[in-house]
Amino acid sequence: MTGYAQARAETPDLALRISVKSANHRFLDLKMRIPEGLESYELTLRQIVRERIYRGHVEIQLAAEPRTAAAIQVNQELVKAYMRAAEALRQETRAAADVDVVALLRLPGVISGAGIIAPQEQLGKILGDCLHDALTKLDEMRRSEGAHLAEELRSRLAKIEAEADQVAVLAETLRPAFARRLEARLKDLLGGVSLEPARLAQEAAMLAERSDVSEELQRLRSHLTQFGNLLTGAGEMGKKLDFLLQEMHREANTLLSKTPGVDSEALAITGLALEIKSDIEKLREQVQNIE
Q1: Which residue in 46, 79, 199, 251 is deepest, having the highest Cβ count within 10 Å?
Q2: What is the number of alpha carbons within 13 Å of residue 17 lying toward its C-beta?
Q3: So what CATH class is 144-287?
Q4: Where are the domains of the chain?
């Protein structure tokens, strides 16, 4: 679920700021930006995020600024090594180039002091508390969005349930429809020869049995109930909802395969089954926002 939050903390030497941004994603995709000197805390911070967030694209950015001016130190030996390498390359390629002092200062490891933060005692705990604070604020934002999303999902569930009820009513009318269709076809094949009513009824019943969708509707309703129950719970539910949607999609496909024909009843059921599939797909899109 999308969201953004920020938290700040201070030490005697540093002003810390942690920004957390989340977006929809099927799995947990965690990216962290940590300034030089604080890399040793990355694993701890990642573990904190994994314990709080189970799904989504999450970006964590840590900013640390010295609260007092720090002396700048230049690594003279490293600068000389860079210059020797540059000179050797210039001679080899016969390139004419002047030394850019500013460019030298930008090379990795040349400057220390300014912007280079050394680990301190208790810094790990302060960073962890700051990250927890940011994640709590993120949860509050996502919880508000989640409540709105849950209402949309329940509305969609109610629509599917109503469509399933309509299918159940129409399915009861299929047996006489099968009898009419079967009688018409047999008369065409037999050239108008009279048909035994009992035999016709038996054949129609067999067709109706093969097209019976009561079990599919029962399972679909069960999945809808489980889906709604999960929405009222807490904890990780996104993957469970995904699984239920797969099962609901399977039942909708079976409804379509079991109601062939061009009779008005069968066409109506086909239309409703297509609506159910469409609503399930919309549910699936929305469920990607849920952990």
Answers
A1: 251
A2: 8
A3: mainly alpha
A4: 3-69+120-140, 73-112, 144-287
pLDDT reading at 110 higher than 80: no
User: Does the fold of domain 144-287 match that of domain 3-69+120-140?
Assistant: no
Q: How far apart are CA 208 and CA 136, in angstroms?
A: 57
Q: Is 255 or 226 the better-scoring residue by pLDDT? A: 226
Question: In the structure encoding, which two tokens stand for residue 96, read together?
Answer: 């004419």
Q: Is the torsion defined by CA of 94, 96, 101, 103 positive or negative?
A: negative
- State whether residue 265 is helix, strand or coil: helix
Contact 76, 44 (CB under 8 A): no
Is domain 3-69+120-140 classified as CATH 3.30.310? no
- Of all residues in the chain, what percent carry a pLDDT higher than 90? 31
- pLDDT tens-digit profile of 276-286? 999 999 998 88
Contact criterion met (CB below 8 Å) for 290 and 241: yes
